[in-house]
Amino acid sequence: MATQVRGAARRAQLLDQLVELLLAEGFAHLTLDEIAGRLRCSKSTLYTLASSKEQLVRAATVHYFRAATERVERAVGEATGAHARIRAYLEAVGEQLRPASLQFMTDLAQSDSARPVYERNTEIAAGRVRELITDGVESGEFRDVHAAFVADVTTATMVRIQRRQVAEATGLDDARAYRELAALVTTGLAT
Questions:
Q1: What is the pLDDT, as a whole number, of residue 63?
Q2: Over pLDDT 70: what percentage of the chain?
Q3: Is 158 in contact with 93 (CB distance < 8 Å)?
Q4: What is the pLDDT of residues 94-144, one digit of tens each?
Q5: Number of structural domains, the chain?
Q6: Which residues form the HTH tetR-type domain (predicted)?
Q7: Would you give the distance in Å from CA 104 to the centre of its chain?
Q8: Tens digit of pLDDT for each residue in 48-101?
Q9: Are 49 and 56 in contact (CB under 8 A)?
Q10: Helix, strand or coil for residue 190?
Q11: Three-class SS of residue 154?
């Protein structure tokens, strides 16, 4: 039992280190040998995480988005009121994306194994934004708006931020762009 716990802890530690490496540098240019060298482990150890480089990248992407979602939801849970909750959500998403380099986002967009994880996470984010807006409308904190439309527009902007298109167009870093988006959305929803 203790061996299994240590093994699970080691795998989680490796995934954390892998996520850090991939976020900083991207992954398309890395080989399994380079990844193993950078993580100071053997390729056979990497194969305990996934059966190929593509699946390793996918596993790391799932790990990254799962941990980010937990931190975002914790921030939302600490906020009181509809305005604070949607602001907390958008700002926390921005904060979680802060370590993702342009190379990581470019590689992610081009990866057949990891891109679906990213796309699914964006779909979930759109649903969560819609839920937060609907809750605010129902509680009377937000004016009566079409929640799905506002969520769709917000999500489209989130995708542009994640793809660094907003940074290119405005010069805003991701965290600042999310703060501005949160201010725009909450101001637009105010009664």
A1: 96
A2: 96
A3: yes
A4: 889 889 988 998 899 899 999 999 888 888 988 899 899 999 999 999 988
A5: 1
A6: 8-68
A7: 12
A8: 999 999 999 999 999 999 999 999 999 999 999 999 999 999 999 988 988 998
A9: yes
A10: strand
A11: helix
Beta carbons of 75 and 88 less than 8 angstroms apart = yes
Confidence of residue 4 (pLDDT cuts 50, 70, 90): low
Under DSSP, is residue 148 helix (H, G, I), strand (E, B) or coil?
helix
Tokens of 41: 């482990």
Query: If 0-12 CB within 10 Å is exposed, 13-18 middle and 19+ buried, where does residue 7 land?
Result: exposed
Residue 26 φ/ψ, nearest 5 degrees = 80, -170
* Cα maximum dimension of the chain: 58
Query: Would you say 145 and 130 are in contact if contact means Cβ atoms under 8 Å apart?
Result: no
How long is the chain?
191
Cα–Cα distance measured from residue 32 to residue 102, given in angstroms and rounded to the nearest whole number: 21
- Whole-angstrom Cα distance, residue 133 to residue 24? 33
> Please, is 86 exposed, middle or buried when counting C-beta atoms within 10 Å of its C-beta (0-12, 13-18, 19+)?
buried
pLDDT at 148 over 90: no
SS3 142: strand
Amino acid symbol at 169: A
Question: CATH number for the domain including 108?
Answer: 1.10.357.10
Give the domain extent around 94.
2-189
Neighbour tally for 138: CB within 10 Å:
12
Place of tokens 């439309």: 149
